[in-house]
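Title: Prediction job returns without error message
Component: structure pipeline
Severity: low
Priority: P3
Assignee: unassigned

Description:
Job completed but the reporter wants confirmation the result is attached to the right record. Sequence as submitted:
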Amino acid sequence: MRTFLECDTVVRLMEITPEIATEWLAHQSQNRKINKNTVASYVRSIRNGEWQVNGETIKINDAGKLIDGQHRCAAVVASEKPILAFVAFDVPSNSFTTIDTGRKRRGGDVLSIMGESHASLLSAALAWVWRYDQGVKKVWAKVVPSHQQIIDTLSHHPEIRESVRAHYHTKGLMSPSIAVALHYLFSKKDASKADMFFAKLGSGEMIGKYDPFTSGIYWLRQRLQNDKQNRAKMYPPEIFFLGVKAWNGIRSETLVKVLKISSNDRLPSIL
């Protein structure tokens, strides 16, 4: 059996141009199906100048075929910009089954390494804040921000750490990450009212459908409770939108008579 010292694999740091990426994609071994969201995430990183050489390799086997790196190559082609990356050539063909068997590092892992508490929850909440900052299409598509975008969002919104406790009020009723994100966004407008919103949403006390100060909370709680009982669950962005609508009703002291949303609705600004 061939030992490590006898392996012919060579690793080089290369500029991967769209032309090179196109050539490799045209000559790849049987590979998994392209994930469009992954490619889109890489494209954003490349176009925003966030792409970094991190030691991970694009792999070309001993038959000259691409066996690992199709998403990175597809992103180079789509972005029409080159990247620097390490490329391993002459990787033994029989090594294909061992590639990508480890768990991919998540945003929470990155924040944990940085010393953040509640890192996984914080990362997921920051993703919602990032989507809100980007606009309605990113919220509905539930686009996944890159690790660097998560870090940048935290640097722009450091006070979100203080909202992590908010999800305890709505435990079992609303996604913790959505609760944290909405509490933070609401707190930027009125911190005491944001605390009241989530306390009443969780407890169901002192709220009424004919009360302009709490009707939004009443109908949001009803929708969330019904969702727990229904087999067909609400899409997470829908819950995010409904939360904003309920909050805006309270802030404007408007009687909310019905709380609904459609995929064509524009995300209202948080009042």
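Comment from assignee: result matches the submitted record. Residues 107-251 form one domain.
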